[in-house]
Prior knowledge:
The complex is a heterodimer of chains A (116) and B (110). By secondary structure, chain A is mostly beta strands.
Amino acid sequence: DTEVTQTPKHLVMGMTNKKSLKCEQHMGHRAMYWYKQKAKKPPELMFVYSYEKLSINESVPSRFSPECPNSSLLNLHLHALQPEDSALYLCASSQRSGTSRMETQYFGPGTRLLVL
Amino acid sequence: QQQVKQSPQSLIVQKGGISIINCAYENTAFDYFPWYQQFPGKGPALLIAIRPDVSEKKEGRFTISFNKSAKQFSLHIMDSQPGDSATYFCAAPGDDKIIFGKGTRLHILP
Lengths: 116, 110
């Protein structure tokens, strides 16, 4: 099973709402990632978890809060977002620590977020 | 330099034709070059990858050509099909993250 699942598929939220995005993988991967992708752009890395510990935060605003409850799950908590945060949010996983240059990252289908 | 430059930005090819997408890099420490394919509404998926110790890798209709001295690599899609219509990203894994090219939107005319 090489599948990364993400819920919900679509999310509309107001600027005062609190919501969470969820990601799950059952491939035994120990690195998990959050990316943000705007239309017609490549994915931009937001966070990396390695062995359930946050290893990279790409200077993401604090209104985005990641959480890794266990090696299979990754959450992204959203609070007080801005309209410019509207994008496709992708989760990915890879086998080990994420520092090996030849690791394949497996992406989920993404959550399309609209902030009103 | 942590950049990967990709061209063209968009490409239209007739069914059965050859689609060619080019990428160039500057950092000679890059040692693995994957291509990702992304369909609308889906996440990127690894399509094919090459290491710089070979000059070409072929998987079905997809071929990567690699020119180490020029620091360039390209994706060739032979006998292009409408189902190949997608966005393609070349990439190079940096020390702590994947460096993506800006992407090429490929449309195959039926």
